[in-house]
Amino acid sequence: MAGAPREREESLDVIQRELTAFARRARAAAARLHPDLPLVSYTLLAHIDYRQGCRATDLAAHYMLDKSTVSRQVAALEKLGLVERHPDPDDHRIQVLHPTPAGTQALASTQACRRAAYRERLGEWTADDLACFAQYLLRYNSTDPR
Amino acid sequence: MAGAPREREESLDVIQRELTAFARRARAAAARLHPDLPLVSYTLLAHIDYRQGCRATDLAAHYMLDKSTVSRQVAALEKLGLVERHPDPDDHRIQVLHPTPAGTQALASTQACRRAAYRERLGEWTADDLACFAQYLLRYNSTDPR
DNA sequence: AATATCCGATGCATTATACAACTAAAATTT
DNA sequence: AAATTTTAGTTGTATAATGCATCGGATATT
């Protein structure tokens, strides 16, 4: 097994290359899936929904975005009537974000399209492969450098 | 195994969510790894290098970018002296792109940083897991909708 | 009480991007 | 061979996304 370190290196290169390719294509792909809802807004809305009630700071940390970027995106979402802000009664600096009914609904329909696309794309995969791939991604993201 | 379809669905959701999170963070991560070289330029340069000699159209197709975007990025790379364009003698419409020595070198040093980051990040992974993850990513990207 | 820290907003500059219109060079059709 | 269509790449214009710096208001620390 003298070649193992080199094989590791090769795998790392592939991972790096393929993740980059994916990231680069993501915008175009997202634009196809939901032409109406701006890409980042959709992502933030989804996260707000996923963790029912979160703060702008949480979003910034999770997606490694500047707080100013998040501030504007959230403002846009509020303007579209998809997100509500409620000041935290205990700490007046904080605004807790929640999807509005319209936001939940917009998310649901987009989510449906998205799921359909993924289902078609990954239809050939076995349930085990899907579970395994999901685990790898979770593991990869969990070791995210802070 | 009545729950299998639901489990598939859950895996799909995780994959979707984690890939999105990764894509969203990619810009910030890239900025940390090579603050000098603009994000997209680096990506394109890497691809030009990987497939020794490619056309702007290839880049656009591979990363799902508009040709105008690629045109500008390539122009920037040329201005930085990292890429050369050579008209194809057989077809004067085509410009074949190659990294310059400076481009190759810039890529090498960045690549070294990148590899180090990945090595640290994925140091705990077994060679098998890395290979497996790499295969999943290749498989995922190969089924990219066109 | 004074100071420091935290949350979010805003002004400003820059990067990345798409779409549309254009030029030039093949390739195809007539 | 001439006309038309397709292909490769550039440029003009508009917009989205982003970061940095700064600021104002609130809470926490000393």
Secondary structure blueprint with pairings:
The structure is a homodimer of 146-residue chains.
Chain A: H1 4-33, H2 39-50, H3 56-63, H4 67-79, E1 83-87, E2 95-99, H5 101-121, H6 127-142
Antiparallel strand pairs in A: 1-2
Helix pairs in contact in A: 2-4, 3-4
Chain A binds a DNA duplex (30 and 30 nucleotides) through residues 27-28, 31, 38-40, 55-57, 65-75, 91-95.
Task: Explain what this protein looks like in three dimensions.
Two copies of one chain form a homodimer. The first copy, chain A, has a two-stranded antiparallel ribbon with strand order 1-2. The radius of gyration of chain A is 19 Å and the shape is globular. The first copy, chain A, is mainly alpha-helical. Chain A has helices at residues 4-33, 39-50, 56-63, 67-79, 101-121, 127-142; strands at 83-87, 95-99. At the A-B interface, α1, α2, α5 and α6 of A face α1, α2, α5 and α6 of B. Chain A binds a DNA duplex (30 and 30 nucleotides) through residues 27-28, 31, 38-40, 55-57, 65-75, 91-95.
Quick take:
The structure is a homodimer of 146-residue chains. Chain A has 146 residues and is mainly α.
| Largest sheet geometry of chain A | 2 strands, antiparallel
Instruction: Please give the most extensive interface between any two protein chains, plus how many residues each contributes.
Output: A-B, 57 and 57 residues
Order of H and E elements of chain A: HHHHEEHH
H/I helix tally of chain A: 6
Q: Count the strands of chain A? A: 2
Strand proportion of chain A, as a percent range, falls in 5-15%
Distance between the termini of chain A: 34 Å
